[in-house]
Amino acid sequence: MADDNILKLIANVQAELKAPKSQYNSFGRYNYRSAEDILEAVKPLLLAGIIPLGIALQKTGGAAMVAEQLLDVLGPYGPLATLAAIYLMTSALTEVMSNNASAVLVVPIALATAQSMGVDPKPLLIAVAFAASTSFATPISYQTNTMVYTAGGYRFSDFVRVGMPLNVIFWIAAITLIPRFFPFHP
């Protein structure tokens, strides 16, 4: 049953990708509503594959192992350094995959890290949510980036040139403000 639904979804995506000329406007640009539909159709497939991976990370101890490695390197520098690393990890993943998928992967690691450090997990989880929502450095990181990339005639390097400084600004803001509003030790 589920396999049939997935096959139907893949067939629909393929049909959209082979769109007739009517999908193009008078300027030869792709009809963005259809592009948005394609992205929305693919998102459940990505999440369907990533959610079990996040669960497996937690149940097999993989998240604890990654948290342990993270703490071996950053533990001496305190929870703020760990917050910064969790944010960077999520941000890097979000640039190459869906923001939902990167959050699903990093949340178990953030929880295991907070538990190992003996701090409130809320600041780390807020960092994951914030980092997963601020993806500016690639046109593939979020649907609207992809649509603007095509519509505006931008190059990949334009996103990197403007997006990387934005990511750094948001990273600095996050590691400065998150602990103020969500302390590690309430």
Which characteristics define this entry?
186 residues; mainly alpha; 8 helices; 76% helix; 0% strand
How would you briefly describe this protein structure?
The chain has 186 residues and is mainly alpha-helical.
Nearest-angstrom radius of gyration?
Answer: 19 Å
Intertermini distance: 48 Å
SSE ordering: HHHHHHHH
Described by its quaternary structure, the protein is single chain
Estimate the global geometry from the Cα principal axes: globular
Poorly predicted regions are none
Number of strands: 0
Helix content percent band: over 70%
Q: Determine the strand fraction and express it as a percent band.
A: under 5%
Number of helices: 8
Q: Domains counted in the coordinates: how many?
A: 1
Coarse structural class: mainly alpha
